[in-house]
Amino acid sequence: MMVGKEKAKAVIVGGSIAGISTAHALISAGWDVILIEKTSAPPTGSPTGAGLGLDPLSQQIIQSWLPLPHFLHNTTLPLTIDQNQATDSEKKISKTLTRDECFNFRAAHWADLHGLLYNALPPSVFLWGHLFLSFHVVDFKGSITTKVKVLKTGEVINIVGDLLVAADGCLSSVRQKYLPDFKLRYSGYCAWRGVLDFSKIADSDTITGIRKAYPELGKCLYFDLGSGTHAVFYELLNKKLNWIWYVNQPEPQVKGTSVTMKVSGDMIEKMYQEAEKVWIPELVKVMRETKEPFLNFIYDSDPLKKIYWDSVVLVGDAAHPTTPHCLRSTNMSILDASVLGKCLEKWGVEKLESALEEYESIRLPVTSKQVLHARWLGRIKQGLVLPQRDPFNPKSATPDECQELLQRNTPFFQ
Ligand SMILES: Cc1cc2nc3c(=O)[nH]c(=O)nc-3n(C[C@H](O)[C@H](O)[C@H](O)COP(=O)(O)OP(=O)(O)OC[C@H]3O[C@@H](n4cnc5c(N)ncnc54)[C@H](O)[C@@H]3O)c2cc1C
After folding, report:
1. Is any ligand 1 atom within 6 A of the Cβ of residue 316?
2. 157-171 mean pLDDT
3. Which InterPro entries does the record associate with it (predicted)?
């Protein structure tokens, strides 16, 4: 509890985008923050992660957290066009299905965005190499004790705070305490992903060819729809191309708790061979020249009924695991953090329950609709069975059906 002039203190579990955003928002709200992350050190450079799209509101919020707002523009590229096109696998030609030229997103590399947010916080906020183990709530108005393992030494320490924020991702172990039966839902498909660094091959045939086939790279978010499959393609800052290819397949027997799978050389070669059957040669060339493509199995969950209990609150993927089709994951995390900060600032630690109740009442209806819309859009784009209608076929879809593909139809789209 806050005594005299002592600040309220939040313990945040998870140092990815949701955790780091929450640290910003809570510090802005006048709270002390300590962030626990099991990774041994802050991620550096671009091997970590791939591309993501930031919506206008997230851009505005991030800028408010940075020492100089233009840092964000210097780290991202514009995505001013949202385009869906159909690729004919046999003829290897594409036709435009929809085009929205008022799309106001920006493209970032995960590691660049993470670095930007991280460098704008005091290093003393972070406990790297610390694994969250468990917590104990004393009472609603009282403190919360978090047990944490220092991975380097094996020592277990207690950290006390007024609020515990679970920013520990879609497999959240904090959430587990309140929802022991919670399960993720497999979408029916996985995503091959990669980032081609073309800084040393900018004049190569691969890059000339891809720029000819996708002339608006650098400002366009391309969705390519094939038969029962789709790919996403856009440029990132510093001469990088980001691609994602969704492939329908049964749920894998993933060992451990990760939804990202290690891939063998054989799996990658098989993926290239399949890509040759579906995509234009220019795109396959980009895939082939990408170092270390990786595989994500796509999961989400039915919307949760609650996202806070006692003095424990969920943010980011812990609060709403989602499929990526509406570019919401990162944006929802940033918005969660910002709204939580505003609610805590408004009500103060003395009225923590009112703050958390208001946070939930603002965020839960929005994120629930967005998660379900993303699920539905993914099923459309993958040509999967939909309730009370035929699967979407990009070759024969009517203009009205094609309109459904647009990002701007996402509920609460800004
Ligand atoms: C390394 C990394 C790279 C990513 N790259 C991309 C990308 O390129 N494009 C994209 O769209 N999305 C990417 N994501 C996912 C993206 O960050 C999230 O989907 C979204 O931003 C919501 O993030 P989150 O912070 O809620 O969850 P996550 O990003 O899943 O982060 C959860 C964090 O909690 C930590 N954690 C979990 N359990 C514990 C524990 N017991 N103790 C301590 N720490 C714990 C994890 O190590 C992780 O850092 C990436 C995530 C990570 C972790």
Report:
1. yes
2. 96
3. DHP_3-monooxygenase, FAD/NAD-bd_sf
